[in-house]
Amino acid sequence: MRSDGRPGTTDPERRTRLLAGAVIALRELDDVLVPLGTLFENAGHELYLVGGSVRDAVLGRLGNDLDFTTDARPEVVSRLLRGWADAFWDVGIEFGTVGVRKGDHLIEITTFRADSYDQVSRNPEVTFGTSLEDDLIRRDFTVNAMAVQIGSSGAQDFRDPLDGLTALLAGLIDTPATPEQSFGDDPLRMLRAVRFVSQLGFRLAPRVWQAITEMNGEIERITVERIRAELDKLICGEFPIEALDAMVETGLAERVLPEVPGMKLTIDEHHQHKDVYQHSLTVLRQAIDLEDGDPDLVLRWAALLHDIGKPATRRHEPGGGVSFHHHEVVGAKMVRKRMRALKYPKAVVSDVAQLVFLHLRFHGYGDGAWTDSAVRRYVTDAGPLLDRLNKLVRADCTTRNKRRARRLQQNYDDLEQRIADLQAAENLEKVRPDLDGNAIMELLGVPPGPIVGQAWRHLKELRLDRGPLSPDEAEDALREWWAARGGK
User: Fold this and answer.
1) Domain check: are 215 and 300 in the same one?
2) For the HD/PDEase domain, which residue ranges apply (predicted)?
């Protein structure tokens, strides 16, 4: 590695192998690249596949979204594509971008840019450039500043004036210009840098790490909507633990998600407890291992934030113990406050907060000691979040005591089996009173109003306590309740 913190030389054989793989991947797109390249070549214009598309081709993970850059102005690009594309949109044309769909591929073509920034907002003064090199140097990271020329024969020359391939081979996130200039132009790039740590498994170049540490306050220039979008991509990446740790260590998390570094509680020799921060990262890792398929945004957020109420509820007890009473209640409130501040959809806020609120419920289970009533209430309170709650409580076991861990896993298995047995017998997903509102009004001789709702809730509590009741049993129970109230 060079003294400036940027990557040095890497294995030439690996370089050759990855480039050869990228060529094969791009050849498989000849049905799109050849006619597209021909359009631009015949019109006397350059066309390059660029950015994340080239990066992903080299990494062997190229998808259906393809990004291009060209010397042609937007109006020319529009004219060339309208007769070729299956669908067309030009909502980004003022920034030089034209979007189309061709078959299964979503394509964006942007005119060379040579923007300038005022270092106050992140909005550039859009200026069209005249060369590929000018366009590449304004990009966020060197791994995203590689290009492949596209012509009538498809993919042609590989262009890498900023040595992005060396950074990619070294697994480094670095900037084309100095990171101070890059992040000053657009502070969101600091968060994008750690997001790529999560998505690619790369690490930050030393000078990038230092710049984020010194400049993290600049992120406050960015709207919460854009911050939220990056956080979601980060937490749903393949390596979110490493990315979150980088956020915390550089101070960036303190600016956008302060509750996470806030879990780093000081532990003294007299009052020992788990490192809440490291425990939460472990729970997140274990929750990810329990996912069935695609990344589960709600489960991952709940796993990361399930203990954020502990710092506010920590109490030193006599004899050296530490307690965190009601941290799940406090934590759920903190989740709502933070996620609302980040403008998450109401449903996401509600689901994550509810999982945090319920995550301790299992710990009262204790070797199958719950009654069927307690199991019904657990299922009813979880509602559609039951599967996620089961995964969260399993992930929350981070003890190093193998015997205790084995016992907890057995308890989880036992509870899930009891839930399955009750589900089969009682359809727990639709626990409702055994009499509906009309039957309640007819039996009690009352009109619609608060009394009906109170009677309905009483019958639902009986249903949770005793299981399904026959019609006669339900009517007798309702008459008893009504009589105890004096018929009013």
Assistant:
1) no
2) 272-408
